[in-house]
Specification:
Elements: E1 10-13, H1 23-50, H2 57-84, E2 92-94, H3 95-128, H4 133-136, H5 139-165, E3 173-174, H6 181-185, H7 193-227, H8 231-261, H9 268-278, H10 281-291, H11 295-307
Parallel strand pairs: 1-3
Antiparallel strand pairs: 1-2
Helix pairs in contact: 1-2, 1-10, 2-3, 2-10, 3-5, 3-7, 3-8, 5-7, 7-8, 8-9, 8-10
Length: 308
Amino acid sequence: MDNATFRYSVLLVEGMKIAPQSNHLAFIFLLISYTFIMIFNIGILIQILFDKSLHEPMYILFCQLPINDVIGASLIIPRMLKDILTDPSARYITYVECVFQAFFNHLYGTTSHTILIIMTFDRYVAICNPLRYPSIMTNRMIVKLSAGAWGVALLLVGILIGLTARLSHCRSVIYNHICDNASLFKLSCESVVINNVYGLTFTVVLLTSSMGTVFVTYFRIAMICIKGKNKATNSKALKTCSTHLTVYLIMLISGLIPIVLHRFPENPEGRKVSNILFHVIPPCMNPIIYGLQAKVIRQRVFKLFYKK
């Protein structure tokens, strides 16, 4: 490996090109969003962990969503707040820090899909096999599903970033607001064909598996509910599924927009904004749509505020 590998141990991050008169507005928006994300996601997480009546498979699996949301928001928003207050010529980051940032950036996006996939499986078993639900969704199964969701994401993202980290680099500017895989391998003057092929395959497999699993599963659930005779049970099932599906669609759409805009380099600022919103909108909406829409959690939260 030549000396070019170590030529730039410190990189310059381009960041967002925000007009000076809009700096304070952007800072306030991000600060309020981050505060909201941390309070509500951590609050719901603590509520589930310490309330034994919520120690059910559905809520235990749901716990992983706020954990992932906190990771995703903490990855980008504090950095953005710092960059807004920093002169554009002084937005430095070490190469090692940039690699770790890229790893957790892609880990957040990947686990957003895998966690919702295992939550879909839980709803499928609960609605389509209610009598066998306790015997299927055991503690052991929950551990397997959770380990699978995080394990697959760690493996896929580890390979993705590993292929990029092996490259030497001859440039020192990250033309993005945050480090990601594409920004990293664009620093290299070597061939990145393998990176492009694996990155494209990774994206296609993840999105196909995610969308295929979710929509096929919910189509089968809908068919069972339509054919069912118990209207009350069917109504409850559809309400639960619609909540989960809403969360999934918000995550999917907000995640697809940056991927699509990445193919249009003439609009870099639009891509940066969409990527920031991917780390802001789902973490803000998830505790409201999924957490507070769940009757048990909603009652606990209202009871807590009523006591205060």
